[in-house]
Amino acid sequence: MTFNLNSNCSRCGKKSLLTDQVTGEQFCGKCGYVTSEKLQASGPEWRSFQKDGGSDPARTGAPSSLTIHDMGLSTIINPQNRDATGKPLTASMKSTITRLRTWDSRSQSSATADRNLRQALNELNRLKDKLTISSSVLEKAAYLYRKALEKKLVRGRSISAMIAASLYAACRDTETPRTLKDIAEAANVKRKDISRCYRLLYNELELKMPVVDPIQCIARISSKLKVTEKIKRYAAKILKETQKRQESSGKDPMGLAAAALYFSCAINGVSITQRDLAEAAGVTEVTIRNRYKGLKEAKILELDF
DNA sequence: TAAGATAAGAGGGACAT
DNA sequence: ATGTCAGTCTTATCTTA
């Protein structure tokens, strides 16, 4: 969308004519009067992505036109539901993009920001497949990244670290149990970098995150192991008790859940090695032992549920 | 072989300077 | 802003049952 300061609105007379980049309509920003429905051929050539394999950055933009103040480089998100390689988007990505288009049409995004966003969304799409993320979480992640972009938080940081951090934040917010480690492995970015970006998002966007519930983690760990419902329920009871006694603050929720499961197995006569449990939970055996020791010292294990 | 113990090192929060 | 401190978690190695 761009200002056309040379002409006046023929209804209200104000110099506030705007051009819709998609339809080419000219309308007045003050009174809404549409002055021209003629399609001006200044729309971007989206073909360039699909034809050239998308690797040439010089060909990613629209053809510039001097008739518009920004030379036609103000962008919209590609109205075709295809990714940068020309493949159709998945259904969940489609809804994400649809929402972003709405945002996009309302803000004057720069070409670089748009390119950045597109690259990030590509990465996000990749992560979704690796981590099996639901579409609502995905949208949240895209939204957060968008906010980060607006606040210029991405400058000087890697796109993949930032989009991974956005995804992690979205998972935290929706109580989807994914650890920093999970995401770091999927994104091929160091855990430390993602965590730094996450903290940045957390502070700058003033996010309020619910604390990770270890009970949620039980399901996640036991899905990788074959564990009966009974054992899961027992482990959940242990965790509820530790939460009640404030034994759980500051501890890795995955470690807590793993220790509770370990004990639950022991009580129910199921033998399971700390090693397998540690692997499924993504923590070390030492951590499980420490949490287990903590449970013993708190006498939680002496309770009869 | 599984589990426990110990030690060194990393990263981040709280708090003071 | 910067440094220190206590607490957590990880990695590695050794010991114990």
Descriptive account of the structure:
By secondary structure, this protein is mainly alpha-helical. The chain has 2 domains: 74-204, Cyclin-like (Cyclin A, domain 1, Orthogonal Bundle), CATH 1.10.472; 214-302, Cyclin-like (Cyclin A, domain 1, Orthogonal Bundle). It is built from 12 helices and 4 strands, in the order E-E-E-E-H-H-H-H-H-H-H-H-H-H-H-H. A 4-stranded antiparallel β-sheet has the order 1-2-3-4, with no helix packed on it. Strand 2 (17-19) and strand 3 form a beta hairpin. The N and C termini lie far apart (64 Å). The protein binds a DNA duplex (17 and 17 nucleotides) through residues 192, 195, 199, 250-252, 255, 273-275, 283-287, 289-290, 293.
Write down how many β-strands occur, each being a DSSP E stretch of 2 or more residues: 4
Largest sheet: 4 strands, antiparallel
Q: Work out the strand percent.
A: under 5%
Which ranges are low-confidence, i.e. pLDDT below 50, for 5 or more consecutive residues? Answer: 1-5, 37-72
Coarse morphology: elongated
Strand order within the widest beta sheet? 1-2-3-4
- Structural class label: mainly alpha
Put simply, the count of helices is 12
Counting structural domains, the number is: 2
Tell me the Rg in angstroms: 26 Å
Name the CATH superfamily assignment of the largest domain.
Cyclin-like
Can you tell me the CATH architecture of the largest domain? Answer: Orthogonal Bundle
Q: Percent range for helical residues?
A: 40-55%
Under CATH at level 1, the class of the largest domain stands as Mainly Alpha
Distance between the termini: 64 Å
Mean pLDDT: 78
Helix and strand element order: EEEEHHHHHHHHHHHH
CATH fold topology of the largest domain:
Cyclin A, domain 1
